[in-house]
Fold these 2 entries.
Entry 1:
Amino acid sequence: MSNLPPFVVLLLPLTALLQPTLAAYAYTSTSNETPKDNSADCDCYVVQSGAQSKTPEYFQYYRFYDFRNLPGAMSDTPPQVNDTQIAGMQPTWQPNLFDSDAWKYDWGIQNWSKDATEDFPTPMNNSVANVYLGQDDSTSYLALRTARQEEYQTSAEIENQQKNLMHVSMRMYGRVQGAKGAVAGFFTFYDDDNESDIEILTDDPTDQIRYTNQPSVGKDGNEVTAASFGPTDLAPWDEWQTHRIDWLPKNSYWYLNQNQVAANTYSVPRKQSFLVLNMWSDGGEWSGNMTVGDSAEFHVQWIEMTFNTSGPYDGGERQRNEKRDGGLFARKGKGCKTVCKIDDVKQLGTPEVVHSGAMGMGISWGLLVVVGLVSVVVGY
Ligand SMILES: *[C@@H]1O[C@H](CO)[C@@H](O)[C@H](O)[C@H]1NC(C)=O
Ligand SMILES: *[C@@H]1O[C@H](CO)[C@@H](O)[C@H](O)[C@H]1NC(C)=O
Ligand SMILES: *[C@@H]1O[C@H](CO)[C@@H](O)[C@H](O)[C@H]1NC(C)=O
Ligand SMILES: *[C@@H]1O[C@H](CO)[C@@H](O)[C@H](O)[C@H]1NC(C)=O
Ligand SMILES: *[C@@H]1O[C@H](CO)[C@@H](O)[C@H](O)[C@H]1NC(C)=O
Ligand SMILES: *[C@@H]1O[C@H](CO)[C@@H](O)[C@H](O)[C@H]1NC(C)=O
């Protein structure tokens, strides 16, 4: 230090102090029920979907949730919720983030629990204390944890508040680490019969992921083989990967790092749904048992989704509004003048225009297929 010119000596502690605050921005919500994040000029968003990722699909809204540069990340895993505590009553470790209005506008952290049954012998209690902001080098991430106590399993679940998704292409950059006997879930949910899942089982080898449309168990109690695929030879889930579900009107497609790895037409959800992330175990056949004292974590750096909606934001009054919304959209006859892409963009989370209606003439949604195909051919 003493060899450095005096002004550098002065600067060093200053930058050390300033760097973390410069890099970190508080969690913000767009607080918008019809979001077009970082892309106010886009009328719709195109993604390449389908079996060969060559079929353009269009959506009206876009949301990007970024957990990478948030302040106050913990460098050590917080202590486990233990047998002497009531899991559902534990407070958050980071109230500045998880009790903020912005967070609560977007997410609901769950604290429900379920009792043991014959098939699922470990009682499971969700806890707010199992959801926290961790960090890897200087990048923060959202962490969901599950841990096994003597008497029960503590788990974590967050629900997105946009409860009126009606078809979505959603992506998550995440990894799963820790003990066997846990399940990390990233899925759309309405009820047990309208649910499309990505599930990472820590009992599985790290090159296998489960892709399921529920129900995966029939009324007779038997497994429905058509419901679930578990491809292997995939990029390892204990390292950061981009996971994606495309829920379309008649098809479900799943991707890993933009490669299609599963497809299904069985029980494609038909009801307006919402995004859920969880990390859990209940001692059943699917999750397996976790060893007492062990834990596993699901880490997420960002989530991106482009979607259509049906009915109100909170998912309520479903029946009444379903038809009216379609009608409104049709009456407005706005079409899609400015088409944006969300993949292969310069900055992740910032959609880019691929087509703009010439001389203010809008194109109808029906014509978009042509635009999309042309975009593929000319590579945008
Ligand atoms: C989204 O909504 C628009 C407008 O109604 C429609 O043209 C488009 O096909 C929808 N996208 C999907 C994937 O259903
Ligand atoms: C349970 O956790 C609380 C809070 O972390 C801690 O104060 C307490 O000592 C723990 N109890 C046991 C038995 O580990
Ligand atoms: C777990 O939840 C049940 C309610 O289903 C409750 O009776 C029990 O006390 C909870 N246990 C813990 C340790 O939080
Ligand atoms: C969930 O948390 C709320 C407070 O935020 C509390 O009133 C409620 O009792 C908790 N539920 C359970 C099952 O512990
Ligand atoms: C979705 O929910 C409806 C109403 O609960 C149900 O009739 C239907 O079987 C469910 N699943 C699918 C794939 O539509
Ligand atoms: C989990 O452990 C319980 C209690 O030992 C046992 O009854 C159950 O069969 C185990 N589950 C699995 C999937 O092995």
Entry 2:
Amino acid sequence: MECCRAHHIIAIVSLVLILSPVVVHGWGIDGHLTICRIAQSRLSESAAAAVKVLLPASAGDDLGSECSWADRVKFHYHWSSSLHFIDTPDNLCAYQYTRDCKDEYGVQGRCVAGAINNYTSQLLSYGNAASQYNLTEALLFLSHFIGDIHQPLHVGFTSDKGGNTIDVHWYTRKTVLHHVWDDSIIMTSEDRSYNSNVDGLIDAIKKNITGEWADQVQTWEDCSGNQTACPDIYASEGIKAACDWAYKDDYFQSRVPIVNLRLAQGGVRLAATLNRHVPRTV
Ligand SMILES: *[C@@H]1O[C@H](CO)[C@@H](O)[C@H](O)[C@H]1NC(C)=O
Ligand SMILES: *[C@@H]1O[C@H](CO)[C@@H](O)[C@H](O)[C@H]1NC(C)=O
Ligand SMILES: *[C@@H]1O[C@H](CO)[C@@H](O)[C@H](O)[C@H]1NC(C)=O
Ligand SMILES: *[C@@H]1O[C@H](CO)[C@@H](O)[C@H](O)[C@H]1NC(C)=O
Ligand SMILES: [Zn+2]
């Protein structure tokens, strides 16, 4: 089983790399799935009801199954491609909304932090019949972008496009640093520790959210004052983690804990963001 699954993954990854020479942004499918499954298990009753209403029928009430929707529509909704990441100044290891949250043309607010604010405020109109927004899309974008902002290299240096231009070896394969953090670390850790099964990883992270990390969860959820959402906190953590962990030479097993922590925080915060706003309007 393990051998075949591994070959299967390599085959798929190679195919994807061949088919998409362009920059790929975002946790891979399993990273996003993990964050959305964790989040959905933590929703308040009214937020869960809203999510159920907004999800397309094909999702079968599983937010995880639609968590990579935003990556699938990136080429069709071309305007959305700059909403998956933030480029910060090289080697500064710090993020500022007004300086860094813009697209390649310099349009303010067009980055993953701006998008999280945007789609969270659109969801505030849930239950308001006159809403001008497609709230299904708002939910799917928000769920994906809260995931992306927790991938350390989604808030990375400008000149290397968040590690997309840095060639590395992952065991026997050649890839780029960005892809290692999107996919490779998660896939290798699934193969080694969870029988190649993403559910095993999700369960292990959930167990740590209620055990090992229980005393931090409240701080992860915090979004003080009357802010709609708190993406600037997550982005600042992200560029710091990228500098501390990703832009380094010695690798492998030592990176698994930071990936697991970011997946946990993403899941907890997606639930907290939805819980904070959706119930008020139901
Ligand atoms: C906000 O959402 C609308 C509707 O999807 C979209 O057209 C716009 O580009 C978004 N802007 C940002 C910064 O997310
Ligand atoms: C809202 O967006 C979804 C996903 O793109 C689409 O399937 C649906 O038709 C849209 N709804 C409306 C009312 O436009
Ligand atoms: C859960 O926490 C334990 C104890 O710190 C750690 O050894 C383990 O790797 C963690 N698992 C995950 C999935 O984060
Ligand atoms: C939040 O907004 C309410 C009403 O707009 C206001 O009374 C309250 O002081 C605000 N709280 C903070 C912490 O800004
Ligand atoms: Zn993405």
